[in-house]
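Example A, followed by Example B.
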Amino acid sequence: MTGQTAIPGAPCPAFHLPPMRDGHRALSWNETRRFERIRVTAWTCHEHRVTFYEFCEAGGLAFIQRTFSDKKKKVVSQSEAWPLREARAVWIALLSGMVR
């Protein structure tokens, strides 16, 4: 992670997650890939964060993909998959600090 945006001096266009809030709940993460092809439709900052999240759609369902990346390794895991409406509610909860 470079800590810089693609355009020097420009603000980061990606969402930076707030700290987890009191009463947050933990999502279950699985490193097994359920879907062969996915479409990423939203994401959090990956330039300034070691862990970033992507909202993904595949096979009529949606899920959150979490990537931990540092100089030594990259670990990708996925949440369970939900119907789109439910997945969007979980994504909003992630963006507000209520789930991780």
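Example B, a separate protein, is given below in the same form.
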Amino acid sequence: MIAVENLHKHFGGFHAVDGASLSIGDGTITGLIGPNGAGKTTLFNVIAGVLKPTSGRVSMAGEDITGLPPHELFHKGLLRTFQIAHEFSSMTVRENLMVVPGAQSGETLWNAWFRRALIAQEERMLVKKADEVLEFLTIDHLADEKAGNLSGGQKKLLELGRTMMVDARIVFLDEVGAGVNRTLLNTIGDAIQRLNVERGYTFCMIEHDMDFIGRLCDPVICMAEGKVLAEGTIAQIKANEAVIEAYLGTGLKNKVQSGAAS
């Protein structure tokens, strides 16, 4: 689905992404882990068109999408969520979903004046779709609540719901579990699995909760210092010497291993 080849993103002398190459298979839930500052979010931002790469190539289903802006990638089915949710706080949860699909009839002045019946019909369809999404995510009881009043976990569910309002092919999730209580995190995990199995969504997620990653993701990719350090199953990643060192440092790693041996 996605192929990243020798990707670089530099900010002056700082190489946030430094020659990363990886692939995200169609129909997978791929985990992306690594210590803070590893370049994970910058990599997401480059793939999703928020930042232009210094060099390298990104392709989607064989098509070169390097440097395309987010709105063009959106129409190709590539979407992303953010670590901090970006809801329209003064709008209801249902309305937050209804604004997602592009090219709505009510966006043109001509239709607003002369094709009100068409706009009303389209709005009824959007309400129906939004309510189906909210029911799928088990937050239909919040449909008329102001989005700004939701908890952090509920806002993450709302962001996931936005991806369901269009024909998403691949969704990049940036720390979907950050600041979310365990009950809601399980709900989010269930929704991701269902979207993957029942609707064929491909996911790539940045996450620090290794239990959550282990439950959902195969393969798991580890980054460090802007490069891909290792790739494999969660068990292989947890046992990888280079991964342990990247997270714990050489001294602490040796101390942990010494304690385990004794």
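On Example B: The mean pLDDT is 90.
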